[in-house]
User: Which sequence fits this backbone?
């Protein structure tokens, strides 16, 4: 009996002392793997997906223009713009040198790039470089999806320099570079697909779940209008930009993943109950292995029904402000009343202020660095790999898992 137990113990203790790959440069993606890179810039989201056949997608390359003590410092540093750092990361990690998809979940600077009057001009002279426009300037994009193409008038005409600059980028890229621009349509599972070897990975799917208050029901491609007609809504109750975020579920074999942009789940006091977008979304999505915190774990998110329905083993999110995550949100994520079993939480950029406020709750598994979810071929298991974000070393600083997909 002892002889059976001992080798196992020795193996476990060695593995604990030196997790495989720590201190080394990240091994490259190879066919069959699903890689989801949450790139740490300190200035918003930026998530690179490499699907099992090498199809690529970049979601929400943000660059918030907010400054001061309430926002995180830029990573690796401020010698380049967030867009430039993302371009360099993507070029390093991509098997090809173009993006099959880019996707803007909603029109906020931390997801698409704020407009900076002094930022660089594109070679075309037609738009300034920030966030998504800076990425598209340097990396060809085949298809770009957003929540309101081509009209940009829901819930009201979308104006301002950021949107004008974005639309100038779309116009030039679509007429001069052949970039397709499409409106993200909830319910569909054929808008983001494998473009290289779809038959080889038939159990891979990206399901569009929600945008603009239109939410998938979980049945076929059927959706339901969750927001009332705008004519019936007083101006102060109009849906916010965050509520309109595009949300999707990605599945690969047994592995399921949810990303909901900045949708909200806890209406402000006195606000209509339909401001809760998370509840109908959760009913359609069901349990997942990995979920991105909605709205960076801010105070108005991760309601009890949503958390207990998705019940993720792993939560991930990008931090750029001390309100992310809200202590009450973290309390719900950790609550075994809401769902049983262990769960691990990973953040890109916790500030000292964040850590002080959430100190009485259990520590996050990781508080700094790029977060890579690397799913094994077939989807049965995955690891969470943390990469150094202090410089472009692409070195592994921690490995968590493997986790079994449920
Ligand atoms: Zn955001």
Assistant:
């Amino acid at each position: 009996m002892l002889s059976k137990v001992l080798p196992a113990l020795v193996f476990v203790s060695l593995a604990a002392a030196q997790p495989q790959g720590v201190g080394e440069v990240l091994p490259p993606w190879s066919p069959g793997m699903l890689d989801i890179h949450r790139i740490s810039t300190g200035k918003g989201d930026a998530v690179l997906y490499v699907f099992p056949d090498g199809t690529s997608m970049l979601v929400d390359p943000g660059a918030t223009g907010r400054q001061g003590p309430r926002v995180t410092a830029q990573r690796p540093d401020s010698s380049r713009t967030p867009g430039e750092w993302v371009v360099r990361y993507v070029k390093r990690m991509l098997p090809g040198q173009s993006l099959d998809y880019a996707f803007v979940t909603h029109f906020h600077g931390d997801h698409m790039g704020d407009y900076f009057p002094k930022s660089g001009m594109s070679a075309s002279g037609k738009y300034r470089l920030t966030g998504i426009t800076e990425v598209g300037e340097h990396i060809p994009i085949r298809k770009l999806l957003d929540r309101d193409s081509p009209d940009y008038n829901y819930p009201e005409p979308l104006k301002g320099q950021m949107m004008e600059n974005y639309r100038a980028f779309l116009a030039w890229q679509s007429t001069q570079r052949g970039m397709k621009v499409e409106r993200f349509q909830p319910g569909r599972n054929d808008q983001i697909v494998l473009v290289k070897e779809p038959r080889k990975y038939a159990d891979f799917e990206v399901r569009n779940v929600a945008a603009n208050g239109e939410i998938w029901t979980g049945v076929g491609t059927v959706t339901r209008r969750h927001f009332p007609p705008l004519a019936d809504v007083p101006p102060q109750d109009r849906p916010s930009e965050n509520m309109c975020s595009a949300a999707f579920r990605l599945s690969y074999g047994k592995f399921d993943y949810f990303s909901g942009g900045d949708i909200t789940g806890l209406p402000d006091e006195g606000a209509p109950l339909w401001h809760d977008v998370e509840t109908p979304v959760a009913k359609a999505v069901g349990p997942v292995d990995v979920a991105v915190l909605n709205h960076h774990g801010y105070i108005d998110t991760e309601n009890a029904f949503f958390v207990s329905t998705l019940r993720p083993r792993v939560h991930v999110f990008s931090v750029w402000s001390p309100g992310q995550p809200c202590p009450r949100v973290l309390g719900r994520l950790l609550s075994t009343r809401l769902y049983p079993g262990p769960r691990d939480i990973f953040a890109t950029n916790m500030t000292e202020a964040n850590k002080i406020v959430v100190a009485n709750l259990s520590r996050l598994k990781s508080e700094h660095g790029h977060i890579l979810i690397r799913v094994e071929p077939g989807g049965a298991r995955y690891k969470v790999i943390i990469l150094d974000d202090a410089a472009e070393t692409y070195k592994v600083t921690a490995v968590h898992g493997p986790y079994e997909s449920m």
In short: Confidence is low (pLDDT under 50) at residues 1-16.
